[in-house]
Write a structure and sequence with these properties.
Blueprint: H1 4-15, E1 18-22, H2 29-40, E2 49-53, H3 55-68, E3 77-80, H4 84-92, E4 97-101, H5 105-112, E5 120-124, H6 139-145, E6 153-158, H7 169-177, H8 186-193, E7 194-198, E8 206-210, H9 214-222, E9 226-228, E10 241-247, H10 251-263, E11 265-267, E12 273-275, H11 279-291, E13 293-296, E14 299-302, H12 306-317, E15 323-326, H13 330-339, E16 344-345, H14 350-357, E17 363-366, E18 383-386, H15 393-403, H16 405-410, E19 418-424, H17 428-438, H18 442-449
Parallel strand pairs: 1-6, 1-9, 2-4, 2-5, 3-4, 5-6, 10-19, 15-17, 15-18, 16-17, 18-19
Antiparallel strand pairs: 7-8, 11-12, 13-14
Length: 451
């Protein structure tokens, strides 16, 4: 059910009423937390619980975990997303756990109208609360701050608690102890542990820099309420840690997919008709639809954003660590660059690789054909996400090797490598993925996909 390190984390969460669990990606934060809630419910009035998360995570990950694990299936979960009427209906439903995205916090506060029924708050990606200030700060964090301490318990979940430095800690810790450990205001916090350093010529351009002794002192103050796990202590980091993120296609997109899969023919809402002339063409078109588009005579037509939303969650959870993204089609790259304008395609300019390895590019898009032998990308990141996949196993393995464990070790970087695959549920994506898992031949996989 739970791995030993997850049991230890669950035990800490049970014993510490208000805390933050710092557990890197892929180690099972949501499973650990849900199991903790289920265990607490045996001896404590813990429900209803409120889970706050990024939108896709709220809609898919949390309800998906309840469905996935037999020991959690009895938990009733209500997802509060969508249009106001749908959110209100979900809020009024009878459930143990209510899940919503951070953007809905102002709406939730207004709708509850001074009522606050939640016995525990779980903040998934608690760094979203780092902008809280007692007087100013982010609107969403302030909406939660008005009621957060009415809940007897609070759990913050994050992969990296301070992605931009120690200054990220105060807002998150306020929800744990209302400023007891790090000061009752952000100003008090920064005045005690930071100095202001000028940046450039302007006297108004400054940044906060911690004193030499600040980190040790801050850590000693918060260690009783922050439980941090290191992947290297629990996994063999000589091997990549692989995660699969499944997304559900919207109904309209799934109908288009099924038409292509079953009839080798479909008609788009624009009126354009698309036909697959053979099995190989059909396979490619199914991969396109799973990715979110389909090529037409005029270019391509967008069908859904499910994979883009999933990738956004990966990038958010990376908390500032650059992410290498492998794509399959040129249309994928166009859509990725539009959705993530801070990202950059690898291209032919060697300076791009230098900038990536120097940490200057937050997201870099690569095609397996152009990021194979010889490229050293390991300095830039340890996170690779396959937005799209194809049949070429060798090219895929070569991309992984660019930042893989061997290259990390050669670079003197003792850190795990995370590999994520974003797959569209109920599509050919899973079949193609099995080429890696089971080393199937192309013919075997094709025959299975096209039955």
């Amino acid at each position: 059910m739970l791995r030993p390190y997850q049991k230890d984390a669950a035990d800490f969460l049970s014993k510490t009423k208000r805390s933050i669990l710092c557990m890197p990606m892929g180690m099972g934060k949501s499973l650990t937390t849900l199991t903790t809630l289920d265990n607490l419910a045996l001896s404590e009035d813990i429900f209803p619980a409120l889970v706050l998360a990024p939108l896709r995570v709220a809609e898919s990950t949390w309800p998906g975990e309840v469905i996935k694990w037999p020991h959690l299936k009895h938990l009733r979960i209500s997802v509060i997303t969508g249009k106001p009427d749908a959110r209100k209906k979900a809020l009024e439903s009878d459930a143990d756990i209510y899940v919503t995205n951070y953007e809905n916090l102002p709406w939730l506060r207004k709708t509850l109208n001074r009522r606050w029924p939640f016995k525990i708050i779980i903040s998934d990606e608690s760094t979203k609360l780092k902008g809280f200030r007692t007087r100013q700060g982010s609107v969403r964090a302030k909406a939660l701050g008005a009621y957060a301490h009415r809940s007897s318990r609070f759990i913050g979940l994050t992969g990296t608690i301070a992605p931009n430095g120690l200054q990220d800690l105060w807002g998150q810790l306020w929800f744990v102890d209302r400023g007891k450990r790090l000061g009752d205001s952000y100003t008090a916090f920064t005045e005690r542990w930071f100095r202001s350093v000028r940046v450039g010529d302007s006297e108004f351009a400054t940044r906060l820099e911690p004193y030499a002794w600040s980190q040790d002192e801050i850590e000693s103050r918060i260690k009783d309420v922050v439980y941090a796990l290191d992947v290297a202590d629990h996994f063999d980091i000589a091997k990549p840690i692989v995660g699969v993120i499944e997304v559900n296609l919207p109904k309209a997109a799934m109908n288009i997919y099924l038409d292509m899969q079953e009839k080798m023919f479909l008609e788009l809402t624009s009126g354009e008709e698309i036909e697959a002339v053979n099995a190989a063409s059909k396979t490619q078109k199914c991969l396109q639809i799973a990715s979110g588009f389909i090529y037409t005579e005029e270019g391509y037509e967008v069908l859904h954003d499910a994979k883009l939303d999933a990738l956004e969650s990966v990038i958010e959870e990376a908390n500032g660590m650059p992410v290498l993204v492998a794509y399959n089609f040129k249309a994928d790259l166009e859509r990725l660059l539009k959705r993530f304008p801070k990202g950059k395609a690898i291209g032919k300019d060697p300076k791009t690789i230098d900038d990536w390895n120097a940490g200057k590019i937050p997201i870099m898009f690569v095609h397996p054909k152009s990021a194979g032998h010889g490229l050293n990308l390991q300095y830039g990141s340890n996170i690779l996400c396959f937005y799209g996949i194809d049949w070429n196993l060798e090219e895929r393995l070569q991309v992984i090797e660019r930042i893989g464990p061997v290259r990390q070790a050669q670079a003197g970087l003792n850190r795990p490598v995370f590999i994520y695959y974003i797959l569209a549920k109920g599509t050919i994506d899973r079949v193609v993925m099995e080429r890696v898992d089971n080393k199937k031949t192309i013919l075997e996989a094709l025959m299975e996909a096209l039955k």
